[in-house]
Write a structure and sequence with these properties.
Elements lengths: L23 H6 L3 H28 L2 H8 L7 E2 L2 E2 H40 L1
Helix pairs in contact: 2-4
Organism: Nocardioides piscis
Protein name: DUF485 domain-containing protein
Keywords: Membrane, Transmembrane, Transmembrane helix
Length: 124
């Protein structure tokens, strides 16, 4: 065979190429396709929540004038000295609006927490 000695060629240890990890925050800030998907999902959830609250508001408070129009006898109903229409539209609507606002804020914050945890999962 060949009497050529074997030579081992070595050099400094090579560094592995740094793998770039995707960061959800960076994706959103850079306005990449993935970042747009993240933002669209948040906006879709917030829009769905807002439309749901507006629907409930429209079906309850918005239907009161229609009910008084369709049932004329309701205009003569009194609760004590106060007409029912004044009681409903002047007093009971405001706690209802506060409740709907409170529900909206709570669900909106929950949507944002879910979104933040989703983006943080991508960061891991």
């Amino acid at each position: 065979m060949n009497d050529v000695p074997r030579v081992r060629v070595t050099g400094p240890p090579r560094k592995r190429a740094a793998t770039t990890r995707r960061s959800g925050r960076r994706e959103i800030e850079a306005d990449t396709e993935l970042g747009r998907v993240f933002m669209q999902s948040l906006l879709r959830e917030q829009r769905r929540l807002a439309l749901g609250i507006l629907t409930v508001l429209g079906l309850t408070v918005g239907a009161l004038p229609l009910a008084f129009h369709l049932v004329p006898g309701l205009a003569q109903v009194r609760v004590g000295p106060v007409p029912l229409s004044w009681l409903l539209l002047g007093f009971l609507v405001y706690p209802w609006l506060l409740l709907l606002g409170w529900i909206y804020v709570r669900r909106s914050e929950a949507n944002e927490r879910d979104f933040a945890s989703l983006v943080e999962e991508v960061d891991r």
